[in-house]
Specification:
This protein has a five-stranded mixed beta sheet. By secondary structure, the protein is mainly beta. Helices cover 11% and strands 34% of the residues. It is globular. β4 and β5 form a beta hairpin.
Length: 119
């Protein structure tokens, strides 16, 4: 894999536009397909959708945790809150890796379970 880098931070990759600032108590949500992250576990997660890439990059830039929520139907391309399971995990992104093939990978450490209020 390539060296860790944040696309957009060095001006090399402009695949995603910066998101507006979030309130300090807001949690950045990263939807995942057929993956469950438990508290205390370190897990690699591949993100491919532009919104997920932007969310992960924003979390890394702002050094914020993310909410990892699994989609109910993995075939939904643009999941809404109602498409997500209510239970998830708050995680820290330990590493963000952009592979030579352009794929984006997160190494996440689950910190605590969470329940979404939007469903």
């Amino acid at each position: 894999m390539a060296e860790d880098q944040l696309p957009g931070s060095s001006g090399e990759n402009k695949t995603s536009s910066p998101l507006p600032p979030l309130p300090p108590d807001a949690l950045i949500i990263v939807p995942v397909r057929q993956t469950v992250l438990f508290p205390g576990i370190v897990l690699p997660i591949t993100v491919g959708r532009p919104g997920s890439i932007s969310a992960a990059q924003q979390a890394m830039r702002e050094q914020r945790p993310v909410g990892i929520l699994m989609q109910r139907n993995p075939e939904v391309v643009d999941p809404r809150p109602s498409d997500m399971h209510r239970m998830g995990t708050i995680a820290n992104i330990a590493r963000y890796i952009t592979a030579p093939d352009g794929s984006h990978h997160l190494v996440c450490q689950g910190e605590q379970g969470s329940r979404s209020s939007n469903s």
